[in-house]
Amino acid sequence: MHGGPYTGRMIVTIDGVAASGKSSVASGVARALGIPYVSSGLLYRAATLLGQEAGLDLNMTAPLLACLREHPLRLEPLAAGNRVWLGQRDLTPDLHSSAVDRGVSVVAAQPGVRTWVDDQLRALTPPFVAEGRDMGTNVFPQAPAKFYLTASPRVRAERRSRERPEDVAAIEAALIQRDALDTTQSAPAPDARVIDTGPLTLEQVITVITQQLPAP
Ligand SMILES: Nc1ncnc2c1ncn2[C@@H]1O[C@H](COP(=O)(O)OP(=O)(O)O)[C@@H](O)[C@H]1O
Ligand SMILES: Nc1ccn([C@H]2C[C@H](O)[C@@H](COP(=O)(O)OP(=O)(O)O)O2)c(=O)n1
């Protein structure tokens, strides 16, 4: 097992379906290695919130990208938890609402928005743990350590129900719908290790991953 701090320039990618545990696991792996983690989903969520607050039609790429140029967002990849800033305003507390959950897939489906996110991620200096949907396939295909998290919709809905006001059945239905909308960019990389987190605790998932990492 690798014991941090991690001094190499390695990128670890952790992709997976909604509420499979990506950010909690990425944060734990990053802390074990003493490096930051990067939450790509937060940028899609922040773009969605900005569009919603500006009253934009989220299906229209050009006005959204113009809005993002006018109001640049900054991802702060802290190991304990990523934050997104709009100037001095911390958007993070508003990014996990059910309203953003509902709008984000439409925003993330647009190639122009994906390029806006990808450019910001590729500008970051490794080492880091990157989590999302397409970190191992599209953004960092050269990463030497790739993981893909799954769990049944019911397990994921039960976990998320501890963080959302809606009941488990409503959350499960919304997760299944978002899984369907996100399928295009959510395939595991061929060289990713797939982990079903359903029967595991958070700590066990983190240990499985850190045990498989190559030496720096
Ligand atoms: N075995 C597990 N693996 C990962 N997360 C778990 C596990 N058990 C419970 N959780 C919890 O599931 C919730 C959802 O995880 P999160 O990191 O927000 O997922 P994602 O980033 O994929 O949406 C968190 O509260 C996390 O602590
Ligand atoms: N690399 C990524 C990350 C997220 N997305 C999309 C897909 C998701 O519906 C939203 C939000 O992602 P996030 O990882 O924050 O969502 P979950 O926590 O898994 O519910 O963004 C994406 O298309 N590509």
UniProtKB/TrEMBL annotation:
<keyword id="KW-0067">ATP-binding</keyword>
<keyword id="KW-0808">Transferase</keyword>
<feature type="binding site">
    <location>
        <begin position="16"/>
        <end position="24"/>
    </location>
    <ligand>
        <name>ATP</name>
    </ligand>
</feature>
<comment type="similarity">
    <text>Belongs to the cytidylate kinase family. Type 1 subfamily.</text>
</comment>
<keyword id="KW-0963">Cytoplasm</keyword>
<dbReference type="GO" id="GO:0016301">
    <property type="term" value="F:kinase activity"/>
</dbReference>
<dbReference type="InterPro" id="IPR003136">
    <property type="entry name" value="Cytidylate_kin"/>
</dbReference>
<feature type="domain" description="Cytidylate kinase">
    <location>
        <begin position="12"/>
        <end position="213"/>
    </location>
</feature>
<keyword id="KW-0547">Nucleotide-binding</keyword>
<keyword id="KW-0418">Kinase</keyword>
<dbReference type="InterPro" id="IPR011994">
    <property type="entry name" value="Cytidylate_kinase_dom"/>
</dbReference>
<dbReference type="InterPro" id="IPR027417">
    <property type="entry name" value="P-loop_NTPase"/>
</dbReference>
<dbReference type="Pfam" id="PF02224">
    <property type="entry name" value="Cytidylate_kin"/>
</dbReference>
<protein>
    <recommendedName>
        <fullName>Cytidylate kinase</fullName>
        <ecNumber>2.7.4.25</ecNumber>
    </recommendedName>
</protein>
